[in-house]
Write a sequence for this structure.
């Protein structure tokens, strides 16, 4: 599989350099920490700082979610590898406004360990850190083992809710509680048509037959929970929606926010086709849709595939979702 | 009597780094099956960076503990991921085991295996049977303890540990993963080797060979 | 090549349906014209109407550029096929605020003919129509045959300039003149690593060897002007930048706006890597960058590839570029 | 004497639509070489829609001109693209040529070929040698004029026209495109058949066969 690359081992640093140049007014470097960035309009005195991060390969995740109303700093790992504690600490210091710092990241053993160490280091410097680990991927463990699940595209909504709470100058415990609530009400599932390819070898992370698709994939080229025969767009949507509705158990009249997300190579035309069916199904269940994000929000290199996330809204989450934000990957002025 | 010096540490890490580079694409393939295909990059990159750091600091009067602490932080910062913290803990424990000296008797080396296994288990809360690198490190530590109790020669103990690690790694094929990325695959993880256990067995094999080579040296 | 599709012949209608649902607050249907959409915050009395359009397969083009500060209505064709006159006429009527309507579209024989007919029909109904045909693809004809060139991703900038001019209530002739100026100062070139695949056959539109790339491709899966051996990201960027600078001939201190655009399957990580080199080259030429768009703005189904557009700014174009806009694919609050 | 009726128009379009459906993937392939691979969909979709519209309006008392005008607008709205306006113009001219009657003598059919060729040239400003469908329609019209002048039978004239169109289409292989999407490829367009010329030759072949079949009918 062909890619626009120089030396594979330089890809992450070059991506960060390119991102700083592309988003000059929004992103800034952190001195001494080449793998951490801060929002230009980020930390301010009295505001809880929001630090996000994880491996590379999810662009525009994570740096795309830095900015006013979203996160204040990011730590950036190698491709599909959690960042080490040092950049996380640097991001934490950059995000600190004296009111404590909230760490949010997906539930992967590497991220948990590295953020844990960084939080200890920050605490030793007198910064209060609270941590929210996202677990929105409903395919990655049964509902009774929710804490074991992966955190995937639902991150985008959890970041948004937390970023809005921070921007409203709410206290650390409240920001963390809101992020936790958003995570608990966030349900994501993905389907891949083709795995992405490694930067080093150019080879796909696993093999799929020409008539196969992989259900319940994560965002690191991991396999999913089952392989199935390629279906129509409507049937693929149904596979996802059935499981999401099963867990979410919305009441008639409930409202959700949707993220119809390309995992990399799937173009937007197909996302719109899936969205059509998604809405038919939700309408049939009496579920309203408050806002839809559709596009490339949280990718897995050049994987061909899609994930659908539904955030089950309540009034407070809705207000935070509608709060303005201004980041490379998400800019909005207010109500949808 | 033969010793293990700070300079030997540099030499050992050069060997480990070369071995991980040689295994990189195989480990990537294994990790592709049940993980995210980056374990090869992580191990080769991490040990490569640690070896370079040790080489650069060689001759600077470091103790073994300082050298291993440098290796730990370098590996951690080069890699992050799961491997970074686990091997950083392992190397810090190894440093504590060898202590604030710039050379120790050669027969202290089996203790390094035990210390590393403890560091990994403590950091990752993993247990044998989880289908992780613990399934290689734990039997290796067991073999090292048994060898020490039996009063075997250091190089021989390390070889036994390497054997135990290899068997442990091979046994992961039949296991269902309970920790790490592969745990999300549930029963689909059965039938595949755990990449972390395989790389651990390779590290231990490389360590044993390095020690054997030292034994043969004049 | 696998896709999320139902019946291929339904793909465009289903995409439009999905888009209307995803962008409820921004897009609205036009009664009686299923292949035309209008902006919710679009036409208003005394404002020049802006109508854009073309074939499908370029999502988020074209409907992504409807909204306040951008276009007022769009006509949507089949995949890679110009829309017929009827939806163009419907879009024109929907965009009309009594001050005339501006048609902007890429230079393809089908678009020219169908828009021409629609303009005649609108004129017959008493609507003044002016037309600007975009020709930014510098690879598609020599500089002395500029009028023969294709209009590609530079459309996005031309739409933006024209949309801002319309939103500022400038008269029709002025809006058209500004759009013309933007087009004349817009330079795009594309490189493909893999062609996109037809919805009907699932087959690529042409074949590329595993070590080949195609230089100077358009946005309809057309071949380019030359085939070359796959190079590094930096060399690929240079191939494009050399030609753009050659034509643009910027003076030291000149400023540009950039669009680093995925043609479909190329993920954003690679776009950032290309952007890094692009900026190195521009810096070396003393060219400043006022604003960068980077992502999936104007695609060619699932083609793997990239296009780079540079809009050579002047003060007036800069001000119009910075004008706020709010559309599915481009939302900004003001200065970058 | 044999006539061509509004009902025959429906039947003819059914044949043309079937032929375009049969050629769809071949035309897509040709258009992939030097265009955007959609000419098959455009021709099959356009003539299919026109045939259905004519069928639905059959028996509604339409004149031939009204039928062809319906076919033109249906094809145009189903297809857009380049093909839509060109064939819409062609069919409108054909309608003018046949006039406001619901049936005409069979020997008026060769005039339809001439009218269509004129419509296409007028709408697209194309000339022979541009490597477009004009390279099929123009020789076909020429052959039709010659056949009429020589007083040949209608079906025979249409067959001559079809032959001329096929030769014209084949000659496009050597041409460098000067109009349409392929013109952007410059010299790279040489060596490929023009899809529009090939589909035009297929339409004319189908028309000739249809006319021959009518001749044989009781
Ligand atoms: N909690 C844990 N304790 C010990 N080893 C673990 C643990 N979690 C994962 N591993 C090991 O880590 C290996 C994967 O390492 P690597 O691919 O570098 O990291 P990641 O899974 O973050 O991509 C697994 O094969 C497994 O052996
Ligand atoms: N100006 C023109 N006059 C006549 N025929 C043309 C002209 N431009 C293009 N064509 C014909 O149109 C064909 C392509 O049709 P089609 O693929 O349906 O449209 P598009 O090029 O818009 O995708 C070409 O093969 C050529 O024969
Ligand atoms: Mg990883
Ligand atoms: Mg891994
Ligand atoms: Mg076309
Ligand atoms: Mg075509």
């Amino acid at each position: 599989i062909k890619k626009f690359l120089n030396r594979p081992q330089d890809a992450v640093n070059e991506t960060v350099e390119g991102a700083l140049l592309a988003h000059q007014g929004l992103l800034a470097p952190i001195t001494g920490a080449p793998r951490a960035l801060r929002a230009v309009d980020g930390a301010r005195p009295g505001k809880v700082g929001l630090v996000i991060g994880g491996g590379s390969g999810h662009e525009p995740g994570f740096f795309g979610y830095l900015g006013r109303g979203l996160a204040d700093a990011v730590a950036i790992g190698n491709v599909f590898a959690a960042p080490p504690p040092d950049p996380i600490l640097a991001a934490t210091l950059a995000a600190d406004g004296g009111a404590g710092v909230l760490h949010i990241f997906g539930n992967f053993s590497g991220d948990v360990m590295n953020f844990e160490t960084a939080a200890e280091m920050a605490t030793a410097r007198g910064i209060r850190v609270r941590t929210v680990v996202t677990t929105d991927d409903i395919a990655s463990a049964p509902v009774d083992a929710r804490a074991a699940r992966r955190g995937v595209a639902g991150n985008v909504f959890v970041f948004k809710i937390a970023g809005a709470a921070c921007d409203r100058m709410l206290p650390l415990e409240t920001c963390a509680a809101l992020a936790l609530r958003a995570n608990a009400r966030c349900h994501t599932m993905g389907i891949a048509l083709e795995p992405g390819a490694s930067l080093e070898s150019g080879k796909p992370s696993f093999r799929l037959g020409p008539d196969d698709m992989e259900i319940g994939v994560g965002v690191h080229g991991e396999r999913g929970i089952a392989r199935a025969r390629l279906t129509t767009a409507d049937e693929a949507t149904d596979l996802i929606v059935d499981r999401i509705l099963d867990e979410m158990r919305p009441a008639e009249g409930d409202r959700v926010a949707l993220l119809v997300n390309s995992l990399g190579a799937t173009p937007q035309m197909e996302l719109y086709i899936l969205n059509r069916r998604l809405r038919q199904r939700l309408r049939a269940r009496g579920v309203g849709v408050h806002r839809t994000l559709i596009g490339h929000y949280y990718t897995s290199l050049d994987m061909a595939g899609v994930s659908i996330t539904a955030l089950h809204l309540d009034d407070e989450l809705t207000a935070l979702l509608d709060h303005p934000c201004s980041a490379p990957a998400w800019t909005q002025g207010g109500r949808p | 009597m033969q010793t293990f010096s700070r300079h030997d540490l540099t030499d050992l890490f050069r060997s480990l780094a070369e071995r991980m580079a040689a295994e990189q694409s195989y480990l990537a393939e294994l990790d592709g099956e049940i993980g995210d295909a980056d374990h090869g990059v992580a191990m080769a990159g991490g040990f490569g960076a640690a070896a370079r750091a040790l080489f650069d600091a060689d001759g600077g009067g470091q103790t073994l503990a300082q050298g291993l602490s440098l290796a730990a932080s370098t590996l951690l910062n080069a890699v992050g991921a799961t491997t970074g913290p686990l091997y950083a803990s392992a190397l810090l424990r190894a440093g504590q085991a060898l202590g604030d000296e710039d050379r120790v008797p050669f027969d202290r080396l089996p203790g390094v295996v035990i210390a590393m296994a403890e560091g990994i288990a403590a950091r990752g809360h993993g247990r044998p049977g989880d289908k992780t690198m613990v399934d290689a490190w734990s039997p290796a530590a067991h073999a090292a303890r048994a060898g020490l109790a039996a009063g075997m020669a250091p190089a021989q103990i390390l070889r036994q540990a390497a054997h135990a690690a290899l068997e442990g790694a091979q046994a992961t094929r039949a296991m269902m993963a309970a920790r790490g990325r592969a745990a999300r695959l549930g029963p689909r993880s059965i039938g595949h080797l755990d990449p972390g256990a395989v790389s651990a067995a390779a590290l231990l094999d490389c360590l044993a060979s390095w020690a054997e080579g030292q034994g043969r040296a004049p």
In short: DSSP finds eight helices and two strands in chain B. The radius of gyration of chain B is 16 Å. Chains B and D do not touch (no CB pair under 8 Å). Strands of chain B lie at 3-5, 103-105.
